[in-house]
Amino acid sequence: MAETLQKVVEENRQGEAYAPFQGDPNQYSKKFYIESYGCQMNFSDSEIVASILNEQGFGATRNFEEANLVLLNTCSIREKAEQTVRNRLQAFRKVKDQNPGMLIGVLGCMAERLKAKFLEEEKLVDIVVGPDAYRSLPGLVAEAEGGQKTVNVLLSREETYADISPVRLDSNGVTAFVSIMRGCNNMCSFCVVPFTRGRERSRDAVSIVAECRDLFERGYREVTLLGQNVDSYHYAPENLEDAVTFAKLMEMVALISPKLRIRFSTSHPKDITDDVLHTMAKYDNICKYIHLPVQSGNTRVLQLMNRTYTREWYLAKVKRIMEIMPDCALSTDVISGFCTETEEEHQDTLSLMDQCGFDMAYMFSYSERPGTLAERRYEDDVPEEVKKRRLEEIISLQNSHTKKNHNADIGKSFEVLIEGQSKRSELNWSGRNSQNKVVVFPKGDYKLNKGDYVNVKITSTTGATLLGEIVSVN
Ligand code: SAH
Ligand code: SF4
Ligand code: F3S
Q1: What lines the ligand 3 site, CB under 6 Å?
Q2: How many other CB atoms sit within 10 Å of the CB of residue 283?
Q3: 153-187 burial string, b = 16+ CB within 10 Å, else e?
Q4: What separation in Å is there between the alpha carbon of 84 and the centre of ligand 3?
C-alpha cells in the first residue's frame, strides 16, 4: 500500500536510502587533494568524491605537494572560469615534474565539455571524469596508476549519488550543502549547464531528509538544498501516496528541528510556486531569502535567452513574494551585453533593478559558450567594451541598492546563527540573519559557540556587512 513521505521517513528507512559515512580518517594509505571551482553544486560534488575516495583508502590533504592524486573540479560557465582552471593546471606542472608518480585528474563541467580532448590539450592530465561518473573514479585511478590515461564522461538519467554520505570538506561545522537534484532541462540559450550536467533528475526524498537529520545530529544548524532549478524538484516513487514537490520536501526538512535553518538555491522565476512561498512563510526556520536570477530586464532579450518569462512576469513574481513574505530578501543574477542587446534594453535591466531593489546580485558580462543555442543561433555582437561599461553600470547601481538596504536595517534586530569567529577580530562573532546578510558583533561576556542563535541589534554597516550588538541569547 502506498505511504506518505512522513511515514517512510519515520520508519527509519534511511539505513537503506542513506548511510552516514563510517570511515576512520586515520586509516588512509594514500592522499588526495581537491580544489573546486564554479557553483555550489561543484563544491557539493567534491564532498561526494571525497567520500568515494575515502572508501578506497585515499585521505584528503590540504597540501597538494604531498598528494598522490590531485583533482580539479572545474566549471565551464564562462570563458574566464575555464581559463582559471588552465592557469591552475600550469601551477601543478612544476610539482608533477618533481613527483612524476603524482596523478592529476580533471572533474566536473570542463571535463564533461572537453572530454578526451582534455588529454590532448593538457598533457599533464591523467584522468578526466564527468559529473555523473564519480563512482568510477577508483577504477580510473587504478588504471592511471598503471600508466594509462583514462576518461569517463558518460552522463546518466538516474545518478543522484543519493546513498553516498558526503565527507564535509573545509566545513565550519555549522552550515552544509545538500544536493537534491542534478542536471537541468531548461535550455537558456546562453548556458552550458544542460550540456555539462545532463538531464534533470530528483534525488530520493527519504535520503535527503536522512542526510539533513544526520547533519543536525552532528551539530550542523543550516542546510542549503541545492539544484539548478529547485522548484522543479519532483520525486514520485510507487510506494508514496503523493509525489514529493519542492514545497513538501522543504517542509519535511523544516520539521527535523526548529533549530535547523533551511536555505535553497536556485529558483527559476517561471517555476517558483505560491505553495513554496506559503511553506517558506509558515516555518520560521526556512530562511526568508530567495535567489531569483532575472538575467535581463527586457522581454525581447529574455525571449532570446529562452528564459520563458517576461519582464512583467518577473515583476509580478517579486510582488507576490513580498505580499506573502514582506521581510524576504531577494538576490539575482544579471548578464550584460547578451547578443543584440541595445542601449534601451540595457536601460530596462537597470530600471528593473531599481524596481526590485535587490539585496545582492551576481553580475556578469556575456561570455559565448561553445555548443549553446546562442552560439549556434545568434551573433555575439555587443563589443567587449560596451559589455564592460554596461556591467559597470549594473554593478554600480547594485552597490547603491545594497548600501540603501543595509542602511535600512540599522536599528532592527535579527536572529543570527553564529558561523564562527569574524575574520578580522577574534573578539567578534560572524553569522548570518535569515535574509542571508552577514552580521558581525562583539562576543562580549556571553558564553557562546558557533552554531548558537542570538538576537543582534544592527548599529551600523560597512556596505557588505551589518554590524551590531547582542540583545539576547536564544
Ligand atoms: N541555474 C541557475 C544558474 C546557473 S549558472 C539559474 O537558472 O538561474 C549561474 C549564472 O551564471 C546564471 O544565472 C547566469 O547569470 C550566469 N551565466 C550563465 N551562463 C553565462 C554566460 N554564457 N555568460 C555570462 N554569464 C552566464
Ligand atoms: Fe543554465 Fe538556465 Fe539551467 Fe540555470 S536554468 S542552469 S541558466 S539552462
Ligand atoms: Fe559551472 Fe558547472 Fe556549476 S558550469 S556553474 S560548475 S554546473
Answers
A1: 38-39, 41-42, 75-77, 108-109, 192-193, 196-197
A2: 16
A3: bebbeebbbbebbbbbeeeebbbbbbbbbbbbebe
A4: 14
CATH 3.30.750.200 is the classification of domain 307-408: yes
CATH of domain 413-473: 2.40.50.140
Distance (Å) from CA 189 to ligand 2 centroid: 9
Over residues 394-438, the pLDDT tens digits come to: 999 999 999 999 999 999 999 999 999 999 999 999 999 999 999
Model confidence pTM above 0.85: yes
Q: Would you identify the CATH topology of the domain 27-152? A: Rossmann fold (3.40.50)
